[in-house]
Amino acid sequence: MGVTAVLGECARIFTHPRMIFKLAQRELNVDISTDAYIDENRNIEQTIRADERFYLELLVIQAADEEPSTHKIEMYFITYCRKLSHNREASTGPDWRDDRQWIPGINMDNGYFQMHEYQAPAWAQHLNHIPSHIVKLTTLNTPIHRWSLPGVPDRFQVFIKRDDLSGAELSGSKVRILQFLFAEALRQNARHVVTGGCLQSNHCRSVALTCRQFGLTPHIVVARVSKKEELEAKGNALLYRLAGSHLYLSPTCSYESFSQRLRSLAGYISDKYREPCYCIPLGGSSPPGMFAFITLFQELIEQGLFDNFDDIVVSIATGCTAAGIAVGNYLTGSKLRIHAVSIALSKEELTKRIDLMLSDIGLSLGTNDIMDIIDGYIGQGYETITNVSANTGILLDPYYTGKGTQGLLEELKKNPTTFQGKKILFIHTGGKFGLFNGEMDQVMNLPGNHANYINEWPEKDIPLVQ
Ligand SMILES: Cc1ncc(COP(=O)(O)O)c(C=O)c1O
């Protein structure tokens, strides 16, 4: 196949055939004899595939300006081989166990970045759009523990599922979705990924960093920002910018036209670069996204959900997380009640969107049959954040879990009868980098802040030791 021809071309260009064959054998794990090189080299133009040619050209461009040292040629060539090897695996279907070398510096024994066939839980196997593959990006199962939230009425006990601990820079529940979407992107041989969200989007941060970990180029559409000067380098924005994302500013527009922008940009990128580009919808909200949370529900079952809890509470924005959990709850015939605290949209708007998601995966159910959407907690939950961190050591974020926790606390007091029982499980969906959005300076200095215990040094009482 073309690999040999490309190697031949490299050999011709760099005039180090023996070294190149040796490297190729190590990197691509292919057996290439000098004879094969000569044979293929006769027809070199015909045998180099378009994508291989592209990388080869890159390689040549990189080396063209200089008299490359042997070491540099080696480095260019290794990069090239890894891309080629990655492409071959992605286009011929996965046997990723044999493809361990292609991400440098990462210990593959723990399964990270490996692709597997996905098995939906038995109770979900009749649904539509079951993803075929999953690639590991998270540390699961995330723990569950008791949470001594201040202000919980005595008749309730609150527990917390720590999905914020699913990883470090790739953390939070949303990374569960990316495990499916990136598997699909790689299987489609994508070289670019387009997605979008608000300036402090956790989703955009995770997509951008995952892209770079897979050697793909991230393209991020930033909603509600129309001038360069409005772009911050704080919190999540700092992290997706550190990932070298290509940024596209989008003025305020409707959800539908923003989604349309993402799709149009993906078309534009693949035409411009002549390479496949994978488009991830806003917040990863999609049928595979639902399966991420159907799988989360199975994880909860394995962690003793049915024996230990009566209600689940989670924050809701696009609806994907809560909908997946509620579908799991419904299909398993569980007696738990699912409460979703809306942090942005009205109950009416969410209901419409989730109804569509449910019919997409083949369920003719209404949203309100399977979950309790609570709205009215759209304001920022800074007071809850400082109170909770100062009392329990758990960090919440200003956009999702802060508001979700505030909603939980107030509902336990105002509407206790909407809860099924006394043991409540709150799902911490992550988002901690939002805490570094630059607004906390002011919050911390507000009078009466729960997390402010500032003391003058008590010189009289604690003399300095001589
Ligand atoms: C940390 C965090 N929690 C919760 C959510 C809400 O999830 P969903 O959009 O699936 O409703 C998001 C969405 O981006 C998030 O980033």
Secondary structure layout:
Layout: H1 2-14, H2 17-28, H3 34-42, H4 44-47, H5 50-64, H6 70-92, E1 115-117, E2 133-135, E3 144-146, E4 157-162, H7 174-187, E5 192-197, H8 202-213, E6 217-223, H9 235-242, E7 246-250, H10 255-273, E8 277-279, H11 287-302, H12 305-308, E9 311-316, H13 320-331, E10 337-342, H14 347-360, H15 367-370, E11 372-374, H16 382-392, H17 401-414, E12 423-428, H18 440-444
Parallel strand pairs: 4-12, 5-6, 5-8, 6-7, 9-10, 9-12, 10-11
Antiparallel strand pairs: 1-2, 3-4
Helix pairs in contact: 1-2, 1-3, 1-5, 2-6, 5-6, 7-8, 7-11, 8-9, 11-13
Largest sheet: 6 strands, mixed
What is the string of SSEs from the N terminus onward?
HHHHHHEEEEHEHEHEHEHHEHEHHEHHEH
Please give the order of strands in the largest beta sheet: 3-4-12-9-10-11
Mean pLDDT: 84
What is the name of the CATH class of the largest domain?
Alpha Beta
What is the helix tally? 18
Give the proportion of residues in helices. Answer: 40-55%
Description:
It is built from 18 helices and twelve strands. It has 466 residues and is of the alpha/beta class. It has three domains: 2-92, no CATH class; 122-168 and 287-444, 3-Layer(aba) Sandwich (Rossmann fold), CATH 3.40.50; 174-284, Rossmann fold (3-Layer(aba) Sandwich). α1 (2-14) packs across α3 (34-42), α1 packs parallel to α5 and α2 (17-28) packs parallel to α6 (70-92). The structure holds pyridoxal-5'-phosphate (PLP).
Give the structure's gist in a few sentences.
By secondary structure, the protein is of the alpha/beta class.
